[in-house]
Specification:
The chain is α/β, with parallel strands linked by helices and 289 residues long. The chain has helices spanning 15-27, 42-45, 59-89, 114-123, 143-150, 178-191, 211-221, 239-249, 266-269, 273-280; strands spanning 4-8, 32-39, 92-93, 104-111, 127-130, 155-157, 169-173, 196-204, 227-234, 254-258, 285-288. 39% of the residues lie in helices and 21% in strands.
């Protein structure tokens, strides 16, 4: 059951689709939304600000002061986005845990050590909502990947738009791996409320639904999940394209996939299927390593 959802607030335009995705997930299980912002000091923000590297002499204090002002602006915007979101959607702000009949929310800001702090909060949550890293908020470049690899919790990547629901049609990208099994298990609270669940298998070398896919579908039906199977032909070098295209053609409200199916160096792993889905999928993507 999903009852505690971590929602990092960046203070940028990415907050809107991230908050909307979080609300769609929370409504499916009447969960509490933990909105969280890490305010960075100028020293910790500097490595992500390219112009600081070129500052010397008297220009350096000026650049650091600009960073302090920019991170302060992001902090104020994150809190303002939270308040506006709760007002707009009539979400109750609540700090003390209690059994609730509606979605509730709280806001916390801490300073510096973004990755360590986010990992702690992520490990203590049932689900983490993250936005695509297409904006500048001075957080680490590989933040999404590091949280995905290190938190042990499912990660829901928000799309660039604001989804209304995650439980219409859910597509599960399936391979016979432990990674996919963990992602499937993590998605059960959403699958059990979905109107339709489609197990999607990419068959390399020809069409056809493997026996294992039918076997999995039967097991899901014991949970009362309305499941069907779908198989398409593909090849390893087109896997990302085929998964994303098939999910779009099936009108998926949510795509569930296992993350990082093999151990390699960071540059090799993040250049593969997982990285491409993080960057390009048009719908919310739930992943678990």
């Amino acid at each position: 059951m999903i009852k505690s959802i971590l929602v990092p607030a960046s203070g940028t335009s990415t907050d809107e689709p991230v908050f909307a995705t979080a609300l769609a997930a929370a409504r499916a299980s009447t969960a509490h939304l933990d909105f969280y912002h890490v305010r960075l000091s100028s020293g910790q923000a500097a490595p992500r600000a390219a112009h600081v590297d070129f500052c010397v002499g008297a220009a350096l204090p000026i650049a650091l002061q600009m960073l302090r002002e920019q991170t302060s602006t992001l902090s104020e915007a994150a809190a303002a986005h939270f308040r506006a979101f709760c007002d707009r959607h009539a979400v109750t702000v609540r700090e003390t845990p209690e059994r609730a009949l509606a979605v509730s929310a709280s806001f916390l800001e801490e300073q510096d050590y973004a990755l360590d702090r986010l990992l702690l909060h992520a490990r203590h949550s049932d689900l983490v909502i993250l936005g695509r890293s297409s904006h500048i908020d001075y957080l680490p470049s590989f933040l999404i990947e590091d949280i995905l690899m290190g938190c042990g919790r499912p990660i829901l990547i928000a799309p660039d738009h604001s989804p209304e629901s995650l439980t219409g049609t859910v597509v599960v990208g399936w391979k016979e791996t432990a990674y996919c099994a963990r992602a499937l298990s993590a998605a059960y609270p959403l699958l059990e409320q979905a109107r339709k669940v489609i197990l999607l298998n990419i068959v390399e070398g020809g069409p056809g639904i493997p026996e294992s896919l039918d076997h999995l579908a039967q097991r899901l039906k014991w949970h009362g999940i309305p499941v069907e199977t779908h198989s398409i032909a593909g090849a390893s070098h087109t896997l990302t394209f085929e998964v994303a295209r098939a999910a779009a053609e099936l009108h998926a409200d949510l795509l569930v996939v296992g993350a990082f199916s093999h151990w390699r160096l960071r540059e090799q792993i993040f250049g593969g299927v997982t990285r491409s889905l993080l960057d390009h999928a048009s719908m919310p993507v739930l992943m678990m390593h």
